[in-house]
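Thread title: Can someone regenerate the structure for this chain?

I was given the following input by a collaborator and told the matching structure tokens would be attached. They weren't. Posting the sequence so someone can regenerate them.
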Amino acid sequence: MVFRILTALVIFLALANTRADETVTLTVTATGLTPQQGQIFLSLFDGKKNYLKKPLKRLSESVKDSDSLDLEFEGLEPGYYAVSAFYDEDNDGELDTGMFRIPKEPVGFSNNARGKFGPAKWKHTNFQVDQDTHITIQLADVIK
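Best answer:
Regenerated them for you:
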């Protein structure tokens, strides 16, 4: 009986340890860009509490010869995530805003969610990542 319990415990710990070592990659394609102009900034959030406040990871990259760009978040634990993005068209390293802090440069969120009077909410932007995943975010002006 003790042998069975010990065997079950060893198997459980081995499976738990294997699961903890598994990570996934999230690939984000940002679209709506002008080739050879500006840079993209992505922020990855892993929960409602930190959403739009404290990103888990950030990525940025200059726009090359295409109207879209792929960026990868590697080494993620399976779970629920959300991504916010902005297109720094003038390449000054920040999101330009106008009156009432409304963005003057294109922005986007995972699930292509849009906010009504402010940024999109966590409940509309989060999605499950339990294997390597690819999403597309269409960047757009808030006010046209």
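Helices lie at 2-21, 122-125.
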